[in-house]
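## retry 2 of 3
previous attempt timed out at serialization; input unchanged, resubmitting
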Amino acid sequence: MIDILWAVGGLLFFIVGLAFSIGLHELGHMLPAKRFGVKVSQYMIGFGKTIWSRKVGDTEYGLKWIPLGGYIRMIGMLPPKNAGSKPATFMPAAVEAAREQSLSEIGEGEERRTFYSIKSWQKLIVMMGGPFMNLILGTVILVAVGSGIGQYQPNTTVAFVATCSPTARDVDCAKKLVPAPAELAGLMVGDRITAFDGKPVHWWSDVEPLLTNNATAPIELTVLRNGVSQQISLQPSMAYLPVLDANGNAVTGANGKAEYALRPFIGIGRGYAHQPISVSASLNVVGQEIVSTAKLVFTLPQQAISAVAQLNPNSKRDPNGAISIVGIGQIASQTASAQGASLEDKFASQLTMLGGLNLALFVFNMLPLLPLDGGHVAGVIYGYCKRGFYRLRGKRFEGQVDMARMIPIANLAAAMLVLVSIVFVLRDFINPIHF
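## retry succeeded, writing output
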């Protein structure tokens, strides 16, 4: 029963965090729009039927049943047709229908309160304001987790004691030919190494350079056992240990098998705890998260094809692949109800997922594709470049860049995004990721 409550609590935390992230995103659009004089008729969190709404000034604020997105409605998103311009060559009826719908929202005397009437740099601020809010929120959360709670790092607590030292003839310790130094010295599970040859140590990163420099010379460990400090003498051995890359992953050879090398060995399994890192290191984590998310987004078509194949519940899921909002909610429930995890662990995991989600919202919304924010940004930049090109030719570009012509492509892109989202959601229901 307790596990169920934790799972429900984790899911509710995620839903509230998602709604807050969406609300902040739309606020990032609305505040500069109002500051530049644009009329914002609606500010909504969610889709579907309205649960609650209230009109304050020109704007109706409300909540809807499906908390998977949100929007603000600015009048005059599409400009009037430029004088003398030719009809759209692709789906002209859809283009003109969208234009008429947009212009119908403009009341008498509100022409100067339209989105299309503000300056290019103001449009950029309005359209980038939403993703920028997600970037700021995601960065603040991940820096707070990294520098406040910390990252999981190996510490000096003994999690287990090895029964042997790996050798060239017994690399997997199947025959237990050579006893492990820690076992010979009498180290026990739960011991915490506090000093290495008189030098205080707190994390395994403090021990590694001392052990490497020491090689196989005898060492004196200060160990805290059941609250009592004691000295233990230990002599490391040289053992065949897996070769690891910079990320801590095992390196494999041409034959596909793990590579081994001789290294100093004492024979203990390390415990783990949260270790706060510097703000600069946390910002580096944010940068890495943005890069990895961007790589994932650019492989979205391939991810969607893989998702179709993984609709079979017996197929293997890539834990680092694309995932839907439903899947993230499932993981939030799993981590919140994980047995053996401390409250600090659960809280850090939930915040880390929320921070990563906001960075993903930033990256995804900045794609130069309508109806995403990045598509509008690309349109503004195109208009600015077009005016500059006209100036270089000694001419002046009159009118607006006709974004209405992109409506058919925007509708097609929206339909594709909905289809891909449905596939990802179905996969997360049928073949969820388990942690």
